[in-house]
Amino acid sequence: MYEFRPQKGNNTAGKVILCLFAAAAVCFIASAAVPKFPAILQALGVCFFVPIIQLTMRFLLSRYLYRLRTAENGRTDFEVFLYRGGKQMQLVCRVGLNEITAARELSAENRKPKKGTKRYHYPPDMAPAKGLVLSVSNGDGDCEILISPDEYLSDVLCKSARLDGEPF
After folding, report:
1. What are phi and psi of 6, to 5 degrees?
2. Separation of first and last alpha carbons in the chain
3. Cα separation of 117 and 110, whole Å?
4. What is the spatial distance between Cα 15 and Cα 2, in angstroms, rounded to a whole number?
5. Is 99 helix (H, G, I), strand (E, B) or coil?
6. Chain center to CA of 55
7. Of 151, 149, 147, 168, which is closest to residue 159 (Cα–Cα)?
8. What is the pLDDT of residues 25-80, one digit of tens each?
9. Which residue among 6, 94, 162, 167 is least packed, with the fewest CB closer than 10 Å?
10. Measured distance CA(157)–CA(159) in Å, rounded
11. 3-state SS string over 17-56?
């Protein structure tokens, strides 16, 4: 069994949250200065808090654990766990290495998924500079998984994709 906990590489989410919080504060201050329609500005300020909460929960409070686990039958699975500060971890992704059809480094060409392709985003950063895009084909259909692995995990995942005959 191999485990890796990716660390945050940039603070893009923190900057976006700070800007949204400043916009909400401006709305509330402006609502005090504009006595005619304060409810409109206050409602707009409250609307800024929804993405603030979502981004905080997703990028500031969440941590990931990537794990390679070999089962008793010899099958090796790649698992992604999510945890938010406590001891309890939640399994959010489990893929057999034999289900990975391709593994590509994150680049400008594949930063966004192809139209109609579902991509699951599991790096700790909002806009990761480095990453690995795994193409997966299993019983649920075709999808992509974006992760931020270390060198060893990246090598294992790329080799398993090449074993199936797909180019890297």
Report:
1. -70, 140
2. 24
3. 12
4. 33
5. helix
6. 11
7. 168
8. 999 999 988 878 899 999 999 999 999 999 999 999 999 999 999 988 888 999 99
9. 167
10. 5
11. HHHHHHHHHHHHHHHHHCCCCHHHHHHHHHHHHHHHHHHH
